[in-house]
Amino acid sequence: MEINTIYNENCLETMSKMPSNFVDMVLTSPPYDDLREYEGYNFDFETIAKELFRIVKENGVIIWVVGDKTEYGSETGTSFKQALFFKEIGFNIHDTMIYYKNNPMPTTGKRYHQHFEYMFAFSKGSPKTFNPLKESTKYRGIANMKNRGKNGTLEYDKIERTEEKKIGNVFCYSIGGGISTKDKIAYQHPAIFPEQLAYDQIYTWTDEDDLVYDCFMGSGTTAKIAHQLKRNWLGSEISKEYVNIAQERINQYTIRSLF
């Protein structure tokens, strides 16, 4: 296969050309619950999930950004159904992260505004790479930590608080025009995710020269950020219109000159 390329086809066609244990990471947001039209594309989730299990390397990771629509008075639960299916076919549900939108579109009805989507991290075994994002620790030095034992008693452990600690698994981003990306053409796609989200996840789970795949490439965010982080990438996108948008975003970085 030609690396650093978007294939204008169904992702199942692209994956059929890949050998097993081929990609280090998948970062994608699938067209869940028919919330948007994608040129009549039929999302065959279970077949796609099984192919992803085949092509992801041992100790590789999938970041699956997904939510649920509300119909007939109830959320669909699609996100949970998909997560449990990934586990059923052999992935670990390594982490359930939250993509929190600081400024979501307001919603009507007897519900609070929908601020988040799930970012499931599915791993094929234990992830080979973990470069955690960190933040400053407020208090440093030796501390006694209280833990509740199985019998209900308090147990104390001494730990050393360092200057930095891992951030939590809720990732907060502002979204919208000029915020998710500075690339104006990207907003011709109806559902882009923030470049910072792609950066945070690709940086965390891969190393330089690893191969990142997006089976629903859309406006090309995964490819752009993978390039900036010196990762190789591959993408599938059924819509020629979206391929053109993604390619225009990517061309300015002369990707193939770097690999």
Short description:
This protein has 259 residues and is of the alpha/beta class. It has 2 domains: 5-130 and 167-258, Vaccinia Virus protein VP39 (Rossmann fold); 133-166, no CATH class. Helices cover 23% and strands 30% of the residues.
Describe the protein:
The protein has helices at 11-16, 45-55, 78-88, 195-205, 221-228, 240-251, and strands spanning 5-7, 23-28, 56-66, 70-71, 74-75, 92-101, 116-123, 134-136, 141-148, 154-161, 164-166, 170-173, 211-214, 232-236. The chain has 259 residues and is an alpha/beta fold. It folds into two domains: 5-130 and 167-258, Rossmann fold (3-Layer(aba) Sandwich); 133-166, no CATH class. The strands form four sheets. It has an eight-stranded mixed beta sheet with strand order 1-14-13-2-3-7-6-12. A two-stranded antiparallel ribbon has the order 4-5. Strands 8-11 form a two-stranded antiparallel sheet.
Structure keywords:
259 residues, alpha/beta, Rossmann fold, eight-stranded mixed sheet
> How do the helices and strands follow one another from N- to C-terminus?
EHEHEEEHEEEEEEEHEHEH
Going by CATH, the homologous superfamily of the largest domain would be Vaccinia Virus protein VP39
Q: Count the strands?
A: 14
Number of domains: 2
Look at the structure and give the CATH class of the largest domain: Alpha Beta
- How would you characterize the largest beta sheet? 8 strands, mixed
What CATH architecture of the largest domain would you give? 3-Layer(aba) Sandwich
The percent range for strand residues is 25-35%
Looking at the structure, the CATH topology of the largest domain is: Rossmann fold
In spatial order, strands of the major sheet run 1-14-13-2-3-7-6-12
Low-confidence sequence ranges: 254-259
- Can you give the helix content as a percent range? 10-25%
Query: What general outline do the C-alpha atoms trace?
Result: globular
Helix-strand makeup class: alpha/beta
Distance from first to last alpha carbon: 14 Å
Question: How much is the average pLDDT?
Answer: 85
Summed up, the helix count is 6
Cα-atom radius of gyration:
20 Å
